[in-house]
Amino acid sequence: MRKKQQEKACRAVLAVVIGVLVPLGAAQAAEKVKVGLMLPYTGTYAALGNAITNGFKQHVAEQGGTLGGREVEYFVVDDESDPSKATENASKLVKRDQVDVLVGTVHSGVALAMAKVARDTKTLLIIPNAGADELTGPLCAPNIFRSSFTNWQPAYAMGNVAAERGHKNAVTLTWKYAAGEQAVAGFKEAFEKAGGKVAKELYLPFPNVEFQPFLTEIANLKPDAVFVFFAGGGAAKFVKDYDAAGLKKSIPLYGSGFLTDGTLDAMGGSGESLLTTLHYADGLSHAKDASFRTGYATSYKMQPDVYAVQGYDAAQLLRSGLEGVKGGKLDQAAMIKAMEAAKIDSPRGAFTMSKAHNPVQDIYLRKVEGRDNKLVGIAEKALADPARGCKM
Ligand code: PHB
């Protein structure tokens, strides 16, 4: 009799243990978040893709390998900054790997294709660089967020800076694709509103770096300022060529800050004293910037740049979303709501999301001093992209 009672009690305890364990096990399986990193790891933007990845993983590591209490599983694709491969690459991550969130990319043309896949499949997309104005303009959508900037933002700020510095007549030069064209449009909008004139817009195909004929044309046109959008390996080559052609001494060169972010080592001294505008700088006094830089240097044995910041903030934004989910199952609507309300404690300074899901942020004026883009001041305070065409 006693033995029977003991057995019964044992069975009851076992049932309770199993009852607890089974639901816990089920919750744990649902807790994972599958992240599809679609970034350039080869080509002229390779260093940018790596910096974004490093920044993203740095924040996840700070959170003990989790985000919002969920284990992070990565699926990684090299998009080569090639728009013609973008739809297939993004579809693979969504359909084959079944990622919960796409994180990418650097190149505006590739990001535009990713946004279409995200829209069609209702997958969450966080853009950690690509500035295509459309992404948070006419193509804005509840499931599309950006942790970086629009092409308009830093370029518009530079249009005002150039005008304030007394320039009247500018020539622009960039790669002929969304990022370059929209940066030029942003610069021109502010510069011409302030009384300047863009006399000529020069373009070359992405990612060409045969700058010589354009430098000759600029020398002939003799504008009193030049504005450019270049980034990555191409930016370093351009600044070196501009200097070697003797133009740096005679015609001031300005750019969105991508020109000199993460590229100064490759330029030698050619970038010295250039002025650029961007949502990040060396010499900011935010506590978050100090801890971020120390962590980054310790993990990766190099200094971070704006791309690393954008990757880090993409992870912070995703964490905010996941923290808004109650229960084990990923609830996209709850995530979106939490991401819209997030205040991101960024190394660049805290920022919030606009209604179109783009950072509202300070744009800094910076000056190259040695290996630094030294903070000069705030060019535009809490600048929001106008989000033209966004109906949300
Ligand atoms: C872009 O294609 O949107 C782009 C690429 C590199 C940058 C900035 C913007 O540094």
Strand content: 15-25%
On the 0 to 100 scale, the average pLDDT is 93
Task: Indicate the percent of residues in helices.
Answer: 40-55%
**Overall morphology:** globular
Small molecules (ligands, ions, cofactors) in the structure: P-hydroxybenzoic acid
CATH superfamily of the largest domain: Response regulator
Termini, distance in Å? 71 Å
> In the CATH classification, which architecture of the largest domain applies?
3-Layer(aba) Sandwich
Which H/E pattern describes the elements? HEHEEHEHEEHEHEHEHHEHEHHHEEEE
Q: In CATH terms, what is the fold-level topology of the largest domain?
A: Rossmann fold
Query: How big is the Rg?
Result: 24 Å
- Oligomeric state of the chains present here: single chain
Major sheet attributes? 9 strands, mixed
Figure out the total of helices. 13
**Into how many domains do the coordinates divide?**
2
In short:
With 392 residues, the chain is α/β, with parallel strands linked by helices. It has helices at 2-31, 46-62, 86-96, 108-121, 152-164, 178-193, 212-221, 232-244, 247-250, 264-267, 287-300, 306-323, 332-341; strands at 33-39, 66-67, 70-78, 101-103, 124-127, 144-146, 169-175, 197-204, 225-229, 253-256, 275-278, 343-344, 351-353, 359-369, 372-383.
